[in-house]
Specification:
By secondary structure, the protein is of the alpha/beta class. The chain has 5 helices and 11 strands, in the order βββαβαβββββαβαβα.
């Protein structure tokens, strides 16, 4: 039994490998996986572990969003396709100077976010997005050298899940996904194998101030359709 490194009513962070998560995350119990694995050449097997994990814990038709590097994108896609179904690739744009990829002589201005599903989803429940471009507020390196901003995670979590549903991040890092889920009133579970990162993430989560719920009166809706009045 792995005890949480941090836990409250919504979020639990575990200092553990996701492959040891059998007693923590049940089969077919997860609504969304949103994660940022390490994507160096030597860490590419992480995507195969992620595919196995997603196939086990995601609900039928559940979604996985994973950041990826561009250099090894074909390998990432092949590893995830072993157990999951490809859905789409989003672009993540970060303001500021482009990152120079010297052995390709390219200035990279975006990063892939690959989307897979655990079987065919019910298309009626898949949310519409006006764009497949995610825009970052800027990299967040204070707690992790590869840290991402909260905005893209919050956008996907808000659109793809409902309050109270379960979001999991198998590579929790500095806690970006967990923070976004907590702020949006979703349950979340994260795993991190680096003790220093887990400690920083736990401190970050302990400082999150949840917004007060806003209660508003329902507004009348004007239906602009021929022959129909509100």
């Amino acid at each position: 039994m792995v005890t949480p490194y941090f836990a409250d009513d919504l979020v639990a962070l575990h200092l553990a490998d996701m492959r040891d998560a059998g007693s923590i995350v049940g089969d077919g119990s997860v609504d969304l996986i949103f994660t940022d694995p390490p994507y160096l050449k030597e860490t590419l097997p992480c995507y195969e572990y992620l595919a196995d994990f997603g196939a086990r814990v995601l609900k039928p038709g559940g979604f996985l969003f994973a950041y990826s590097g561009t250099m090894f994108l074909p390998v990432v896609l092949d590893l995830l396709r072993k157990r999951l179904d490809y859905w789409w690739t989003f672009s993540l744009r970060t303001p500021g100077p482009t990152a120079r990829v010297w052995n390709r002589k390219i200035g990279q201005s975006w990063k892939p976010v690959v989307v897979f599903t655990n079987g065919k989803p019910d298309n009626k429940t898949v949310p519409w997005l006006l764009s497949d471009e995610l825009v970052s507020e800027g990299r967040s390196k204070k707690l992790h050298p590869w840290g991402q901003s909260t905005g893209p995670a919050a956008r996907i979590i808000e659109r793809w899940t409902k309050p109270g549903e379960l979001v999991v991040d198998p590579f929790a890092g500095s806690g970006t996904t967990l923070e976004a889920a907590r702020l949006l009133g979703r349950r979340a579970v994260g795993f991190e194998i680096d003790g220093e990162r887990a400690r920083d993430s736990a401190h970050r989560l302990s400082q999150v101030i949840l917004p007060m719920p806003v209660v508003t009166e329902p507004e009348a809706v004007q239906l602009d359709l021929p022959g129909v009045t509100a």
